[in-house]
Amino acid sequence: MSATIQEVRPLGVIGEIRARFPDEALVEQATADGIPTVWVPRARLQAALRLLKHGLPQPYRMLYDLTAVDERLRQHRAGLPPADFTVVYHLISFERNSDIRVKVALHEPDLQLPSIVSLWLNADWYEREVWDLFGIRFDGHPNLQRIMMPRTWQGHPLRKDHYARATEAERLVMDQARVDREQEALRIKPEEWGMKTADEDHDYMILNLGPNHPSVHGVFRVMLQLDGEEIVQAVPDIGYHHRGAEKMGERQSWHSYIPYTDRIDYLGGVMNNLPYLMAIERMAGIEVPARAQTIRVMMSEFFRITSHLLFYGTYAQDVGSMSPVFYMFVDRQKAYDVIEAVTGFRMHPAWFRIGGVAADLPQGWERLVREFLDWMPKRLKDYEKMALRNTILKRRSIGIGQYSTEEAIEWGVTGPGLRATGLAWDYRKARPYSGYENFDFEIPTAVNGDVYDRCVVRVEEIRQSLRIIEQCLNHMPSGDYKARHPLATPPRKDRTMEDIETLIHHFLSVSWGPVIPAGECTMTVEATKGLNSYYLTSDGGTMSYRTRIRTPSYPHLQMIPYISRGMMVPDLIAIIASIDFVMADVDR
Amino acid sequence: MIGDVMMVVGILGAVVGTAAMLIWVERRALGLWQDRWGPNRLWFLGIGQVVADMIKIFTKDDWVPPFADRTVFVLAPAIVMATILLAVAVVPITPHLQIAGDWNVGLLFVLAMTSLAVYSVMLGGWASNSKYAIIGAIRATAQTVSYEVFMGLSLVGVVIQAGSFSLNDIVLAQQDGWFIGPQILGFVIFMIAALAETHRLPLDLPEAEHELTAGFHTEYSGMKFGMFFVGEYVSVILSASLLSVLFFGGWLGPTFGWAWMPLVWFVLKTGVFILFFILLRAAIPRPRYDQFMRFGWLVLLPLSLLNVAITGAWVLMEAGS
After folding, report:
1. pLDDT tens per residue across span B110-149
2. pLDDT digit string (tens) for A134-149?
3. Which alpha helices (H) appear in chain B, and where do they start and end?
């Protein structure tokens, strides 16, 4: 699994790139996930990306992720171009149904490369994030500001030489001078964001919506330039919920990081564990038994239902309908009762394990699941009457915050927000994982891509999730709930006291944690809010070398200014509700 | 004389007391409709919650923001209580039970007072010197000014039929049949307008928690907030009592020879409307501000004019034949 140069394949996307850049030394890298990965010289980056987006027959139209790796301490990188830092571009082609990873090597102290904001609008925030966390400059970026860390922060946290724990840092003293400095840094400077306070004949109001506001779903700030109640310019400001989840990944064992993933999309519960574990399992070469896969699918779908129910309720609430959210919380409790009986926990069970799940299903689980399946559909019918068919709610949401499929792809929108524009693209169907290919379900879509359609799609997804759960219930395979593999953690206990080899593996895996072979792997799931990926780099140790978490909500929020221009403040609230984000998922 | 004073104090006390109780009633009723309990711990059925809330609201730090216009900021919550309670003064609870006696301009006085109440919201929002508050105040002003028009027009039909602005006369004119029948259109329009005047969900646009955090009273705390809070419930009581007086015959109803029966009828009818207001809050989402204004001017205004024309024509025809 270690990174090696492969022979040039005549076909495939990398062959196509080579054909266009015959003189360049393009290095192809093999990765555990099989995503074509190519190292491009910095000077050729923009041309290569432009080619991928515009010049190929079935182009890579979505900038799915943009991140960086501090390579300076990495041991196992034989065959890769020398680099102090690597910037990684991850693109998706819907026509080909495949991905490509483009990497650029950078050397200290010359840490800069051309910005691609002119190519993809959603590169804006990603480049700001890389600048903020790695200190890599992007030439030509319109406003290269810190995005996660406070503006007053010193250093770039995801660099290997930046401390990871507060105890390693200088003692924090919040004296008055510092308070003043931090407060001043939070003040809105309208010009900096392209906002105007006055025009020739009238003034604008600059309104600071958030970070504490009833409708922003967490600590999220939108700076608004208002003309009356009409939004002239909206500028989202994130980072208030940043906890350094990616940095923590470099300090936790592969096993002990699992609970942290639960708290990324905190409504997604165990569904967050899945891409992380799938990436580890791929690098370690673990085959997950069918029963474990099906249990994972079932629990993931339960969390999709609870997350969508919360969306449904708060969506109705944000357009001023008071009651639905209470009914939906009742349903969520019913779902959580099942989840609790199975996993022993409610919102953040951290229940999946490397190689399977933590325990087998409890006795009598079928009855609980069956009860929930009997309960839910008639409630959904009630909600249809209560919320979706309400004229006022429709007036508030139809035609609001509309975008087309092309715009969605341009901005990196995935999940229900993409399907609401009419594109039937669901990762569970497009690239089935964890046994989704064995299930019979539809991909709900809508036509207009507005606030209302995004709700309709999610409601229908609840029904499809119920279908999937029912199939899990009826066809639950027998067998192991965890793989019989030495790296499955914690290892199965039955052979531990029988032979010394198993005992040693057991001891090492639970004391140091498993050692995952060196390599790189991105694994993606169709999470509650869109595509959620974990891009793991293992350096052959007990801890991840780099944990990149690509979350769906991050690009979705970036689109807010684009779809809320010219709308009114209440429309913005409806748009925010329809995006269905949690700030933990944005800031990580 | 002493009897009069006692009646005044009694009625006003009852109204404010009921308004305070409504906090509990509303929370329990909403709980019932929303599949949850509501406050149910303190005393019988949780009724002690009212007392606890009162203690809390009276003892809270009554903070005036340093950036606010202090005088106006303090005055604004008082205005809402004063004007609404003044309007209550002319409402005939029973023939003998009303504060101001029988005024021949009773209805006009009520409308005048509810119009004045908008100053409280407007001044409160303005004096707060806060952006959310000012947006809320602007919305409140526009909403109240617009809906005042339909509120007044929707009642013209009632006045034509009763031939008087006196609320007592209007009740007595309904002895042969409540006005809800012939004035159904007026009733619906008045109800929507009254809901808009009370600033309650679904028409709580000046507050619109999800958009403006708390709208015009964002900066208020302690008892000043409490005045707005209780003032809202007093105006709910006022609206409900007006609905029963104007369209449902007020105190009229079979008395079974019992002297207190008119009071029971009035309280019963008013209570039903109060509960209906609470039910509306639980059931309907909030329209967008501009949609709501458009609905008022393009739908309610023509309808209320139509109502006036039809009622007038009908009354003239009756008189001619």
Report:
1. 888 888 888 888 888 888 888 888 888 888 888 888 888 8
2. 999 999 888 888 888 8
3. 2-33, 48-59, 70-88, 106-128, 131-162, 167-172, 184-198, 209-212, 222-247, 261-283, 289-295, 301-320
pLDDT band with cut points at 50, 70 and 90 for residue A8: very low
Q: Which residue numbers in chain B have pLDDT < 70?
A: 1, 208-209, 321
Take residue A194 and report the two structure tokens written for it: 């392209």
Looking at the complex, report in whole angstroms how far the Cα of residue B260 sits from the nearest Cα belonging to chain A: 38
Percentage of chain A lying above the pLDDT 90 cut: 32
What pLDDT score was predicted for residue A522?
A: 92
Q: Does A327 touch chain B (CB under 8 A)?
A: yes
Pairing of strands A112-114, A137-139: parallel
Tokens of B159: 């006045």
Between CA A510 and CA A286 the distance in angstroms is 17
H-run or E-run covering A208: strand A205-209
Write the CA distances from B67 to B63, B70, B128, B129, B209, integer angstroms.
12, 8, 7, 7, 22
Distance from the first to the final alpha carbon of chain B: 48
Structure confidence at residue B57 (pLDDT): 84
Amino acid identity, residue B42? L
Sign of CA dihedral B261, B266, B269, B272: negative
Evaluate the CA torsion angle A565, A571, A576, A579 in order and state its sign.
negative
- Put simply, the chain A residues between 545 and 584 with a CB less than 8 A from any chain B CB are 568-571, 573
Residue A74: alpha-carbon gap to chain centroid: 25
d(CA A27, CA A77): 13
Domain ranges, ordered by start, for chain B: 68-320
Q: In Å, how far is B65's CA from the nearest CA of chain A? A: 18
Q: Do B208 and A392 touch (CB under 8 A)?
A: no
Among all residues of chain A, which has the CA nearest to that of B207? A320
Task: Name the closest residue on chain B to residue A214, using Cα atoms.
Answer: B210
